[in-house]
Design a protein that fits this description.
Chain lengths: 356, 496, 387, 375
């Protein structure tokens, strides 16, 4: 009586190839296509990195004369490029490398700290800034900048006057302002800063730092990177904080902990995974940034991307080999950081953040 | 020559200079404790040799020489903002002499005339007249110390030209004919077809200097004073005419005999191809000679012939904007019927000192620049290809000793130096554009239209028309009269 | 017995009655009362100084002609000259493109777009009409009309378009490719396969490389004479064909490099989204008899749509800012075929044309804001509200 | 026995199919080392409502999922009607399933949710429309067809899930604790609905729950499972009144059956102060006496089968639950709501002979023996 209703032999070729024999196993056809495509993409990802790696060991002649693929087979690898970078002009490389590390770490720390504080504030505290006072502030700012740009007033003088005017006006008029903004508007305002292309703001920032004599310094670039990455941190951490249940914090407050202590003692440790994902993303962005560094640094604060670009502007043709060495050397710390932080990043985190 | 306003200025300045001379110290002074910050372009070229000379200078005088590097495209803008905004983190800028005009106009450059007069080691007269009078001086005052004599020449592979019985190109038509004759043949024995001509054409990579070399001979025939960019009276661009159109078209025509991706090659790429032995002809600065005796250049060692930048038999008639045949009256400087106008592209790397730097630092800076410029050092430096320094002193051109020591054969050295001498002493040498906004005129407008023309978006006629419109806008923006005044000054010195 | 206040307090009298207010406790109480401000102020101040002031200052710059003279920059008020130059003046070819007579195709496209816009606005007006929504849609419609006009005057009539067109090409073509491949890879990885962790790590690698490095790596790869694929090119007979000579291939060359770097970003987030679709839905669909494709299109895709829309919004915002790759791979060449608006603004800045540089930067900001806000309102909110 | 080839799910509009028999024989399943289902064999009559009952984690849901095809079968076979379903994909099994979480597609309206199984079968919209309205009417949801699941209450969602199962007139229904997410009152109401509907449709149904009341009220027959092993298969009455073993006895009824562990020697059951004569050959030595609280009564000391000490008495509305202690064991007796007793008083417990069960403590099996009538 045990007639087999639906055994494999009776199905058409297409079904035999692409229909799973049972629920948990993949059909042979699908199995092969899936793995083939994934392996193809792995090749697409790894081959350029491989090519950069072997080019870093090639002599200029090898690079110029034709595609060689396998070290020791097609060409004899040579350490001249690595020597050039790590021995000959070791100071430049070290300077650029340390600059890059200092700037990336400091700007990430700053933006993650300030960003998570703002995100926590927006997640837990009800802000009601008055629309009226904001309009006055904007008007005062525009007036100050017109004074500086158009009439050459000293910038700090214009700033002080504007602040004073703003303070008194708000004191006098704030009672009459009714409409207030909510957290959502502030959040949208911060996150929308991300739409601002760096090129729009970099010229005034350049002039601002130049006026203060801070051009070509670490702190200039650190501050600029921190602000550019702030919206991402607020965006990611806001979602993370809203997903943490409030009752933990409420119980801490009942125990008498101030809100700040709750934030540092309870909330931050709990959101280690979110912090790890944000830190990784933000540090990659500041480690690889090129345009702002080009504007704000001349030599003392030169970062690695500038060094790489410098190697292409030579009059002896693009120094492909030393450039490849720099690229490889630049990947190492990021891979290291990714591995260290990988433990914290559960797959849900990135998604949770995006769904916001 | 009508009364030359510049000469009057020179006489006046000389009077002042003598008064100040006593104050300027002699060169070998003790400057321990002083740091001179020099900013220049990256890479071994220019900066590398300077750093080595800097160490020697520190041993001699105790002054610490810091050579900072920044990508070429950012150099001018970094120096200008650093000095104009009073940040003064840079003491000496080593850049193209053409850029100095804008800094001088903004009164940011130290007047080096008193330093030069008090300096007994510099032997200023040994410097070729073009660079001494014209390159180093702005409005009669010495504002720059030449470190490198830049002008463009044509180069050809002597072995290939002998093999195929070709003559060195004297005109652009001959250049194209030679290129056609050998294109596709294999020069370096690697089995792959090589190129009749290598030409750098990449956008934003100095390609506009190359096309100016093509246009110079067509536009200028009555000596350096005539200029190839603007009408000296009305400051109207001398671009929208047959001469520049022909120059654009020939420049593009070389592409048929060059590498396929030539449009993306900068001067570095073409030199790499040359060293790989793949180019029969090319135009470039003076670096090609020393490059051929570099360790990497053994494929072309002593096979590189140099010749003055090819000329033309037809010259621009300004009224009609047409090209007319050369005749004695129209081309006074023509040599057997061919009007040459070697182009001092880029003007050559020179050092200028920040006027607002500390006086002690200025002294040490001048001493170092003079040390680099003196024949004892510069004659050796110009023979080394990798340094990027090209000859600019007569002493470097007369005796062949240092060149032969450096690796040239006697015959190759005399050919190379002969071509330089012919170019340097040619009275019709075309000067680079040296007025405020030069970077916008050439680096932005001309370079962009050239790139669009090479990419086939527009025709040569449209390109030159766009350039004229763009330049007029810049001139009006900067003020037509000041620009005209400075342009005349920059052409004032004629080559006696 | 936990001490309630943070102080070590041998001298404390009662069990939890705090001692008299000391300096520290008074300060921490004050701080606690103002903790709200304490959290938000640093971020707001930093954004004000480094984003809002520069934004406003940059707007001022866009209305001036700057000249560098002794003692710093001199600004001369020039009204709309910088902007007028981009749209109608000498820079028009550079920003919008060389306009040529409308070809037949151009007219057809214009007619179709106008009809489409009118119908779309009419449909909206006749249904749930709100002034705010309508004005928003009007702006979006105006921008779409302007862009199509620009493209039909240039691309569809056979002449090259300017940096605005190039930027839009990078944004839309680039993001489309990145989304398609990213989703495909995520779908493959979400199948019941082993080694998903390995693929997740390997695919993350391109994100870690600096864009400059990616640019130069791809310039090496694309070299048809001495690059790795040279033998392949020669075999196909394209030996001397070069990517950088032709406008379209150069643009694709940059989109390929950009996509190589940013596909992993889309892949990782969409994979997380796929893995978060509840098992029950898929099983229910399987029991209901749905085929693999039906399950994906009817059940899985609608579920991950909100996340996909958000990821694409992030990518579009980033794509508008593209500058590193065109700068170092082709320096904007051949001609101005690969020059993005940021690069256009950067070149203007480098030659000290501050006014024009700020003007172009502002035009970029305007286009980005309109595109992103309309994408957000029409697509992202629509999907989130629906699911 | 013709093998009827099903290459694609049947596209015939689902008329009332004749109910089919579902036979599971020696079903085995293990996840890694854990052997979850141990050769389970059940023969479900056509149109029968069979309930799989057991504590959570006993393998009942895994068994259900294997019938649905959502879990691979390690060993054994599943036959529905005359087709062997063991290794067939879920979509070819013509079986509908209601999930515990209802699994309603959030982005689809109620109508689209119900119509989805027909849509994937390629049934053209006209007929689909009509079938959806019918199924919705059967679950009284015909007025909410264009609502989204998130706009419905728990009960309504549950009914939509039911409608989605009904609409395709499958050969068998599978339900995985569908009522567990409802509040008590609604659960009672839905139980009746479900019972009536299954009776009306007459579809063979396998229902999984851990709630014994649901099992008792809904099932034609109940299969009690513990640790993957079938303990007993029988009608609710049968399972309640004569449990096959200790587990079944303990599991059914709340409060559960009282157990007194004692020993047998020469025909008498002894434990603490209990000493009763037993009829029927009892070979085991350790024996457990069991009786249900509702079958026992509290009497004056010495009058019952044995005496015990009153521990508490809880008034639960329609009855009073008296908890007593003998030695360490606690016992429970249901008495009428006006029953009063003092704490710690010694009373007697009486129950009828056929309400007393004897179990072999070691094997758990019920012994074929009874308490002798003599006191």
């Amino acid at each position: 009586m045990t007639a087999t209703g639906h055994d494999l032999s009776s199905r058409g070729l297409w079904q035999r190839l692409f229909e799973p024999p049972s629920i948990n196993r993949m059909a042979p056809g699908t199995f092969i296509t899936v793995y083939a495509l994934l392996l193809v993409w792995t090749l697409v990802v790894l081959f350029p990195v491989y090519w950069v790696l072997i080019t870093s060991f090639k002599l200029p002649l090898d690079v110029a004369s034709g595609p060689y693929f396998l070290p020791w087979v097609d060409f004899t690898p040579d350490l001249h490029a690595w020597k050039a970078l790590f021995v000959d002009d070791w100071e430049d490389t070290l300077k650029a490398y340390s600059n890059s590390i200092i700037i990336a770490l400091a700007s990430t720390a700053l933006s993650v700290l300030v960003g998570s504080m703002a995100a926590y504030g927006l997640a837990r505290v009800q802000y009601k800034p008055k629309l009226g006072s904001i309009l006055i502030f904007v008007a005062a700012t525009i007036a100050a900048i017109i004074a500086v740009v158009r009439y050459g007033v000293e910038w700090w003088l214009a700033g002080l006057v504007a602040l004073a005017v703003f303070y008194f006006l708000v004191l006098a008029l704030s009672r009459h302002f009714k409409t207030t903004l909510a957290n959502g508007d502030i959040l949208f305002w911060i996150i929308s800063q991300r739409i601002l292309a760096p090129i729009v703001v970099v010229v005034p920032i350049y002039i601002m730092f130049q006026r203060v004599g801070q051009l070509d310094t670490h702190q200039a670039i650190i501050l600029t990177y921190a602000v550019i990455n702030l919206p991402i941190v607020v965006w990611l951490m806001y979602d993370f904080f809203t997903s943490i249940p409030v009752d933990l914090e409420e119980s801490a407050q009942l125990d008498g902990a101030t809100r700040i202590m709750t934030f540092t003692e309870i909330v931050l440790p709990l959101s280690r995974a979110g912090l790890a994902a944000t830190t990784l993303l933000v540090s990659i962005l500041s480690w690889n940034e090129y345009l702002l560094a080009l504007f704000l640094s001349t030599s003392k604060a030169q970062t690695m991307p500038i060094l790489v670009a410098g190697m292409a502007a030579g009059e002896r043709g693009v120094l492909w080999w030393t450039m490849c060495v720099t690229i490889i050397v630049m990947i190492v710390p990021v891979v290291f950081m990714a591995i260290v932080l990988q433990r914290f990043i559960s797959k849900g985190v990135l998604l949770g953040a995006v769904k916001g | 020559m009508t009364h030359n306003p510049l000469k009057a200025l020179l006489a006046g300045a000389a009077g002042v200079a003598t008064a100040v001379a006593m104050a300027a110290p002699t060169v070998a002074q003790d400057y321990s404790g002083i740091t001179v910050n020099i900013l220049t372009r990256p890479g071994p070229v220019i900066a590398g040799r300077m750093a080595e000379r800097g160490e020697e200078f520190t041993e001699m005088t105790g002054a610490e020489i810091r050579v900072d590097e920044v990508p070429f495209a950012e150099l001018f803008q970094k120096v200008l903002t650093d000095w104009a905004t009073g940040t003064n983190s840079i003491d000496v800028g080593v850049f193209a002499s053409g850029w100095a005009t804008e800094l001088a106009a903004a009164d940011l450059l130290e007047d080096l005339t008193p330093y030069v007069e008090a300096d007994d080691k510099i032997d200023i007269d040994d410097i070729a007249p073009y660079f001494r009078e014209f390159n180093q001086k702005i409005a009669g005052q010495v504002k720059l110390i030449t470190l490198d004599g830049d002008f463009q020449m044509a180069y050809y592979r002597t072995d290939i030209f002998d093999e195929y019985g070709l003559e060195p190109p004297r005109t652009w038509d001959e250049y194209l004919a030679n290129a056609a004759a050998v294109h596709g043949k294999d020069f370096n024995g690697d089995g792959e077809p090589d190129f009749g001509s290598c030409m750098f054409k990449k956008r934003n990579a100095q390609s506009y200097f190359a096309v100016m070399s093509f246009a110079a001979a067509y536009v200028q025939s009555k000596g350096t004073g005539e200029g190839i960019f603007f009408d000296t009276e009305t400051m109207k661009p001398k671009v929208n005419n047959e001469a520049w159109i022909k120059a654009f078209e020939i420049y593009k025509a070389t592409g048929e005999y060059g590498p396929p991706d030539e449009i993306n090659h900068d001067v570095g790429d073409t030199r790499a191809l040359l060293q790989a032995g793949r180019c029969a002809q090319m135009i470039d600065w003076g670096d090609v000679g020393p490059l051929s005796i570099d360790p990497e250049g053994e494929l072309i060692r002593n096979k590189m012939g140099a010749v003055i930048m090819p000329g033309t038999t037809e010259v621009l008639d300004e009224e009609s904007g047409e090209l007319v045949a050369c005749d004695a009256e129209r081309c006074p400087h023509a040599i057997d019927g061919i009007n040459y106008a070697p182009f001092a592209a880029f003007g050559g790397w020179s050092g200028a000192i920040n006027k607002n730097a500390d006086p002690k630092v200025k002294e040490a800076a001048y001493a170092f620049l003079s040390y680099m410029n003196q024949a004892a050092q510069s004659n050796v430096d110009v023979t080394m290809g990798w340094t990027g320094y090209n000859p600019y002193r007569n002493s470097q051109l007369e005796n062949l000793e240092p060149w032969i020591e450096a690796g040239f054969t006697e015959e190759a050295a005399s050919n190379y130096l002969g071509a330089i001498k012919a170019s340097l002493n040619n009275p019709n040498m075309a000067s680079d554009l040296k007025i405020p906004g030069a970077a916008q005129y050439t680096g932005v407008i001309l370079d962009r239209e050239l790139a669009r023309f090479l990419a086939g978006d527009i025709t040569a006629e449209q390109a030159v028309a766009n350039i004229e419109e763009g330049w007029e806008e810049i001139t009006d923006d900067f003020g037509r009269d000041e620009q005209a005044e400075i342009y005349r000054l920059s052409l004032g010195i004629t080559n006696q | 017995m936990t001490t309630t206040t943070g102080r070590t307090d041998e001298t404390r009298p009662g069990l939890n009655a705090p001692a008299g207010p000391t300096g520290w406790t008074r300060f921490s109480e004050w701080l606690d009362r103002h903790s709200g401000q304490f959290f938000i102020t640093p971020a707001v101040v930093m954004i004000l100084i480094f984003a809002i002031f520069p934004l406003v200052a940059s707007l001022m710059l866009a209305f001036t002609r700057a000249r560098i003279g002794a003692g710093g920059f001199k600004f001369r008020f020039a009204g709309l000259q910088n902007f007028e130059k981009q749209f109608f003046g000498s820079e028009q070819f550079h920003f919008l493109g060389t306009f040529s007579a409308f070809s037949l195709l151009a007219w057809a496209v214009m007619a179709a777009t106008t009809a489409g816009i009118v119908w779309w606005l009419y449909r909206y007006a006749s249904t749930k009409f709100s002034w705010f929504g309508f004005v928003g849609r009007l702006i979006t419609a105006a921008l779409i009309f302007g862009i199509v006009l620009m493209f039909s005057a240039t691309l569809f009539s056979g002449s090259p378009f300017g940096t605005l067109g190039v930027t839009l090409f990078y944004v839309f073509v680039g993001c489309a490719i990145q989304f398609a491949i990213g989703l495909g890879l995520a779908f493959l990885c979400s199948q019941k396969i082993r080694g998903r962790g390995f693929f997740r790590v390997v695919f993350f690698l391109p994100l870690m490389i600096t864009p400059i490095g990616v640019g130069y790596a791809f310039r090496m790869l694309a070299d048809t004479s001495k690059g790795p694929f040279a033998p392949l090119w020669q075999a196909v007979g394209l030996g001397d064909f070069t990517w950088v000579a032709n406008a379209w291939t150069a643009r694709m060359f940059i989109v390929v490099a950009d996509s190589w770097q940013w596909i992993p970003f889309v892949f990782i987030i969409l994979l997380a989204a796929l893995e978060n679709v509840p098992r029950d839905f898929v099983e229910a669909a399987e029991v209901d008899g749905a085929s693999g494709w039906q399950i994906f299109s009817d059940i899985t895709w609608p579920q991950i749509m909100p996340v996909a829309a958000t990821v694409m919004l992030i990518r579009v915002i980033e794509a508008f800012k593209i500058v590193d790759l065109p700068n170092i791979m082709t320096a904007g060449g051949p001609g101005i075929a690969t020059e993005s608006m940021t690069l256009h603004s950067f070149f203007a800045w480098r030659s000290f044309d501050l006014g024009q540089s700020s003007a172009i930067a502002y035009l970029l900001l305007f286009v980005t804001v309109v595109v992103c806000v309309s994408f957000f309102n029409l697509v992202v909110l629509g999907r989130i509200r629906q699911s | 026995m013709s093998t009827n080839v099903i290459d694609r799910p049947s596209t015939a509009t689902p008329a009332a199919l004749t109910p089919k028999r579902l036979t599971i024989s020696n079903l085995n399943k293990s996840f890694g080392a854990v052997h979850v289902v141990k050769n389970l064999s059940i023969d479900v009559e056509p149109g029968e409502f069979l309930v799989l009952l057991g504590p959570s984690g006993c393998g009942k849901t895994t068994a259900l999922r294997m019938i649905a095809g959502l879990e691979e079968v390690d060993d054994g076979s599943i036959v529905l009607g005359d087709t062997d379903m063991t290794h067939v994909l879920p979509k070819y099994r013509d079986i509908a399933m209601v999930f515990q979480s209802y699994a309603l597609y959030p982005h689809k309206t109620v109508a689209e949710n119900i119509g989805f199984p027909l849509k994937v079968r390629g049934i053209e919209p006209g007929a689909r429309e009509e079938a959806v309205r019918d199924a919705a009417a059967q679950v009284h949801m015909e007025t909410l067809l264009d609502r989204f699941p998130r706009q419905l209450s728990g009960g309504q969602r549950q009914r939509v899930a039911l409608a989605r199962a009904i609409v395709r007139r499958p050969a068998a229904f599978l339900m995985d604790e569908p009522l567990s997410n409802l509040d008590a009152k609604l659960r009672g109401f839905m139980r009746a609905e479900l019972k009536h509907m299954q009776h009306e449709l007459g579809v063979t149904t396998v229902y999984v729950t851990h709630d014994q009341i649901e099992a008792m009220t809904l099932a034609h027959r109940v299969a009690i499972i513990d640790h993957g092993v079938l303990q007993q298969l029988g009608t609710p009455k049968d399972v309640y009144n004569n449990p096959a073993n200790l587990f079944v006895a303990g599991f059914m009824g709340s409060p559960p059956m009282n157990f007194v562990e004692g020993t047998m020697n020469n025909g008498r059951f002894r434990a603490h102060q209990v000493d009763l004569a037993v009829e029927g050959g009892v070979t085991a030595s350790d024996v457990t006496l069991g009786f249900r609280p509702e079958d026992a009564v509290v009497v004056d000391p010495g009058q019952g089968r044995f005496d015990a000490r009153v521990y508490t008495a809880e008034m639960t509305g329609e009855q009073t639950l008296v908890t007593l202690k003998i030695g360490e064991d606690t016992l429970a007796v249901k008495m009428p709501k006006d029953f009063e007793v003092d704490y710690d008083a010694t009373v007697g417990i009486g129950f009828a002979i056929d309400h007393g069960f004897l179990f072999d403590t070691t094997t758990g099996k019920r012994l074929d023996a009874r308490i002798a009538d003599a006191a």
